[in-house]
Design goal:
The complex is a heterodimer of chains A (593) and B (125). Chain A is of the alpha+beta class and 593 residues long. Chain A has helices at 6-22, 24-30, 35-106, 109-112, 115-128, 162-170, 211-218, 296-306, 308-390, 395-426, 438-455, 475-493, 528-533, 551-561; strands at residues 132-139, 144-148, 172-179, 185-194, 201-209, 227-232, 262-269, 272-280, 286-292, 434-436, 459-464, 471-473, 498-507, 513-521, 565-571, 575-583. With 125 residues, chain B is of the alpha/beta class. In chain B, helix 3 (62-72) links the parallel strand 3 (50-54) and strand 4 (77-82). Classes of the chains: A alpha+beta (593), B alpha/beta (125). At the A-B interface, helix 9 and helix 10 of A face helix 1 and helix 4 of B.
């Protein structure tokens, strides 16, 4: 027993893995798959790479292009959404300021500073704009001269208030949001009107509820989770925010929005990509901010979901490609496999013929060498017999020796049969070429065997083609071959078997005609190991003394000399078929010597 | 003793001698020689009626011997003996220079018939 070295085992394993990475087909060969399978795998991946690489590049480029397009679309969409909101807020503010402007131009200071008139106007306005909280008229000293609204603010001095200072400078003013006396958030819109008399100017001031503003702003958020709100220049929330603080608190966001233009900022918030957009609202201290949780990726997924059919199509095409690749690969490799097999068969055929030829020469040589001593034994034994028969003095031993001598002669006779047949291999036979009808030749052979066929109750079927061309060949030798093979068939099928003899003409791919004689039996069949040696001399499976094992090898030699071929096919248990192919016309140069 | 001498030519001494003796037992005037030179000498000396000739011998071959015999004793009838299972190949070289052939190992009765026919042919010539 050998101890396995664990370290060596590990190294071996690592080696296999390394091979698998660098030369997959070799590793597969190591794993026991045959080289055609490895070739198949290699070819499959090669074709796949060749076809797939451009596709992959296209897909990657397409992906980037699509993402850029979708990003742009998404940004445009966000911008459009925010622009809309901004405009509606601006329209809302303009509506308020122009309302006041209308009042100051339509009514005189004297009319409006009259408490009753103002209250009438307020009541009318209030019906039209529900978010109007109160309306006040303030003189140039900052004293509220008339007031219409829920509070008692008549006579209040605003001269020190911030909004009063600003409206003096700007003429029209929108204030930040603040909590009024009743803790309700609202903002102020004020318009200054110049007077031609010494009183100088007066101011009309309206307090507006932020409810409408809040509603307008929140329409900027696209979907659940998004956030939209308004801050002022100091970063104080003017409308409530979902996640960045409550109304009138400082915004909990480390971003300093600019009042210039439209801006989109991409950020990571709580490990999720978020897009912030902000834009200033004109003629107000406000900046609209929106937070979009949805991203362009989500938009892309949306797009893909909407075009599921296209996705299925692409997937299906890829699948078809893979299947086609697999089939092509399999077909090509099978072709290669088949070509290899055919080549190997051709080589083995040649080897087989060469082997048979050399075995034949060897057998003939041996037979010749044995023949001479055999002749001597024959003569000496014959002489002994003669002496016993012709001289009287040996008569006493005659009865004892004669059977022995006859046994020797008998054995010599057996050897003689063998050596003479063996010598047939090397014999440069004179082939008697004549025009013959193969069907007639077959019929004649059948005639020899008729009695045995009848006796054994064998069904003989003759499928002899009519109008068979006469061929140039040696009748006697051909008949010897037919006799050998049909005899074998009779032995193979036994009682009640079927033997078929078929003749037909085949046109070869090169245009020449070939005559075939097929002798088929439904006997036991010949095992593969036996089939390999069937044309070798002395190879026999018959009982000792029943066959010399020379019949088929001689037949092989004869058919070769006649320029033909002899082949055998056999399926164990089903039967055997011998096919003898003969040229219809012997070509020049092929003529046997 | 039958009429006419029978000359056996074969380099296998044992074979030739035994065959000659068996023929003598059968009352033929048989003589065995073992090479080409002896064969020519015997033909010149005895003018045999029948010659049984092995075609393959070392030195001067049976074919040459046959040609020589046909020149010096054209009447002699030749039976070819072959250890090759066939004499087809010799037929081409020798044509009808020989009367008959026998294959080794030879059956004595078979050979005897051939010799008898040869003797008749010799007498008839």
């Amino acid at each position: 027993m050998t101890e396995q070295n664990p370290k060596a085992e590990i190294e071996k394993g690592v080696g296999v893995v390394r091979t698998l990475l660098t030369h997959p087909e070799e590793a597969l060969a190591l794993l026991g798959t045959d080289r055609y399978k490895a070739l198949k795998i290699r070819l499959f991946f090669l074709i796949g790479a060749l076809a797939g690489a451009p596709l992959l590049i296209l897909v990657i480029l397409g992906f980037f292009w699509l993402r850029a397009t979708i990003d742009e679309n998404f940004n445009n969409y966000l911008r459009w959404q925010m622009e809309n909101t901004k405009q509606s807020v601006e329209i809302f503010l303009r509506e308020k300021t122009s309302g006041l402007k209308f009042l100051v131009s339509a009514y005189s200071y004297d009319q409006l500073s009259n408490q009753r008139t103002l209250q009438e106007i307020f009541a009318k306005r209030k019906r039209e704009f529900s978010d109007l909280v109160d309306l006040g008229v303030i003189d140039s000293k900052g004293i509220q001269r008339a007031y219409a609204g829920p509070y008692d603010l008549l006579g209040k001095d605003y001269s020190s208030h911030d909004w009063y200072q600003k409206v003096l400078v700007r003429g029209v003013y929108v204030s930040d949001v603040f909590l009024g006396y009743r803790q309700i958030p609202h903002f102020v819109v004020a318009v200054k009107q110049e007077l031609s008399d010494p009183r100088g100017f007066w101011i009309i001031r309206a307090t507006i509820d932020i409810e409408t503003l809040t509603r307008l702003v929140s329409s900027a958020s696209l979907r659940e989770g998004d956030d939209a709100f308004v801050i002022n220049d100091d970063g104080i929330l003017q409308t409530p925010s979902r996640s960045y603080g409550r109304l009138l608190e400082r915004i909990r966001l480390d971003m300093i929005p600019e009042r210039r233009g439209f801006n989109l900022v991409k950020r990571q918030v709580a490990n999720a990509p978020v897009t912030f957009g902000y834009v200033a609202i004109r003629d107000s201290p406000w900046i609209l901010i929106a937070e979009f949780k949805s991203t362009s990726y989500a938009a892309m997924m949306d797009l893909l979901r909407r075009h599921m059919a296209a996705l299925y199509l692409v997937g299906g095409l890829i699948l078809i490609g893979i299947v086609m690749n697999y089939r092509t690969t399999r077909m090509v490799v099978n072709w290669i496999h088949k070509a290899d097999r055919e080549r190997e068969e051709a080589i083995s055929q040649t080897e087989h013929s060469a082997k048979l030829a050399s075995i034949g020469r060897l057998a003939a040589g041996v037979a010749h060498e044995i023949n001479n001593p055999l002749a001597i034994i024959n003569e000496k034994a014959g002489l002994m017999k003669d002496i016993l028969e012709f001289s009287e003095e040996a008569a006493s031993c005659k009865e004892k020796f004669l059977p022995l001598i006859l046994a020797i002669s008998g054995s010599v006779e057996r050897c003689r049969t063998i050596t003479h047949r063996l010598l047939g291999f090397a014999r440069r036979m004179d082939v008697k070429i004549e025009e013959i009808n193969v069907n007639d030749a077959v019929q004649e052979v059948i005639g020899f065997l008729e009695r045995e066929i009848l006796y054994r109750n064998i069904h003989l079927q003759l499928n002899l083609a009519e109008g068979l061309p006469r061929i140039e060949s040696d009748r006697g030798q051909l008949q010897q071959v037919f006799l050998n093979i049909i005899n074998n068939a009779i032995d193979a099928v036994g009682e009640g078997g079927i033997i078929t003899v078929t003749t037909r003409v085949i046109i070869l791919p090169d245009g020449r005609n070939q005559l075939r004689v097929i002798i088929r039996d439904n006997g036991q069949g010949i095992p593969k190991e036996v089939l390999k040696h069937i044309f070798e001399p002395f190879y026999t499976t018959k009982e000792k003394g029943k066959g010399t094992g020379l019949g088929l090898s001689l037949s092989y030699g004869i058919i070769q000399r006649l320029g033909g071929t002899i082949e055998v096919e056999s399926v164990t248990g089903k039967g055997t078929a011998f096919t003898i192919a003969l040229p219809v016309r012997i070509e020049e140069g092929e003529k046997p010597a | 003793m039958k009429q006419g001498k029978v000359l056996i030519v074969d380099d296998e001494k044992e074979f030739a001698a035994a065959l000659a003796e068996r023929l003598r037992i059968r009352s033929y005037d048989a003589l065995a020689v073992f090479d080409a030179e002896e064969a020519i000498q015997a033909v010149l000396r005895d003018a045999p009626a029948v010659m049984v000739l092995d075609v393959r011998m070392p030195g001067i071959s049976g074919v040459d011997v046959l040609r020589a015999v046909k020149q010096i004793a054209p009447r002699t009838v030749v039976i070819i003996l072959s250890g090759h299972g066939s004499v087809d190949s010799f037929r081409k070289d020798l044509g009808n220079a020989f009367f008959d052939f026998a294959l080794k190992p030879v059956d004595i009765d078979d050979l005897r018939q051939k010799i008898d026919k040869a003797l008749q042919a010799y007498e008839a010539a």
